[in-house]
Amino acid sequence: MISLTASAEDMLSKVMTEKGLDGYALRVFVSGGGCSGLSYGMTFAEGPEIGDQIFETGNVKVVVDPGSISYLDGAEIDYIDSLMGGGFRIENPNAVRSCACGSSFQTTAGEQGTPCS
User: Contact 78/24 with Cβ under 8 angstroms?
Assistant: First the structure.
């Protein structure tokens, strides 16, 4: 299961309304690469694809492909707004190491990436 904090849900709802994406879902995925071997990705999707897992939090639907769910199970998406810059952050209990950039992680399988620049 993937969850959203109230601040992430609020920001996603706002962005989706501003962009006219009513009825869309947030697609969260993992791809190879990044500083620690794996990278998070998020985009908007018109709906789920075959095999996707679907999670709903308030007004926001989250979809995750079958290849990414094992890396993201139990993760929480938050939105941070600070003077140093804001953005979405994923707290992932499956990550054993994360890079300072915050968008790259490593699991117990030990995927390796290149250092952050």
Answer: no
What pTM, to 2 d.p., does this model score?
Answer: 0.78
Domain presence at residue 13: yes
| pLDDT digit string, tens, across residues 14-51 | 999 999 999 999 999 988 765 556 788 899 999 899 99
User: For the chain, how many structural domains are there in total?
Assistant: 1
Integer Cα distance of 109 and 99 in angstroms = 16
Task: Report whether 41 contacts 30 (CB < 8 A).
Answer: yes
CA angle 83, 87, 92 (to 5 degrees): 125
CATH number of the domain that residue 87 is part of: 2.60.300.12
Whether 23 maps to a domain, the answer reads yes
